Amino acid sequence: MHEVFNTGAKSVAIIALGPSSRDYVSQMCSKKGFLGVDEVWGVNTAQRCYRLDKVFIMDDLKVMERRYPEWGAELKREKVPIITCKAYEDYPASVAFPLQEVIDSVEDDYFSTSVAYQIGLAIMMGVKDLYIYGADYYYPNAIAVESGLGCVGYLLGIAKGKGINFKVPNSSTLMDAHLAYQTEEDGKTVVKRKLYGYDYNPGDSFQKIQEGRGDEWDQKFSQKDYLGKLKMQVAEAKKTGVAPAVPGTTSQAE
Questions:
Q1: How many domains, the chain?
Q2: What is residue 61's three-state secondary structure?
Q3: Contact 86, 60 (CB under 8 A)
Q4: Residues sharing a CB contact under 8 Å with residue 43, sequence separation 6 or more, in sequence order
Q5: Residue-wise pLDDT tens digits, 78-109
Q6: What distance in Å separates the CA atoms of residue 208 and residue 199, rounded to the nearest whole number?
Q7: pTM here?
Q8: Which CATH number does the domain housing residue 10 bear?
Q9: Residues 224 and 132 in one domain
């Protein structure tokens, strides 16, 4: 196995390209909350913005070169190890991902996104603390949802079961971190989540927002209900050819 996978790193920060990646910058710039980790792993073009120990480009580099010639030329000059599906001689920094070893460590082959491969590698390498930034996948008030959310959540569950601690910034939607809050219990600060059914109902929160009596938490809780209604309307629109209505507004057809 390549030496880049035998570094003995026990704490790793993963930086994907979603909005919560800004929290990594904020934390690194803080005098009090400085994030000291053994390694920093980025995704795709993150190598342009951050000081990385590894950059993961799991698409075939030759395919990326054809699609993005300037980026391809840039990657041929890269010094940071490029972890990818296939190494090429004209990409001197490229290193083949140890797929079979990771599958054996995870005991599954479910990897649908670059962050999923990173978590799998962290498990294989024996990492103990994982910090994940920019892996957001869906965004409040947006219709689009990126693929990979379920896979990443599943692998984080496996990682936790293997003794890995992980942290996600409060600005991220991964693992519903944006619904978490801090409170005091027995003199200690603890992080908790509001519980569906016990603490909120998305449909009820959405109705409160429509009626102008919802608060910040209702705004957060209503997102899933909002997106669910919108997705159903988009699916129906594809069948009928009628433009979908945004929930709470009048459709163009009307």
A1: 2
A2: helix
A3: yes
A4: 14, 15, 16, 17, 55, 56, 57, 114, 115, 118, 134
A5: 999 999 999 999 999 999 999 999 999 999 99
A6: 15
A7: 0.80
A8: 3.90.1480.10
A9: no
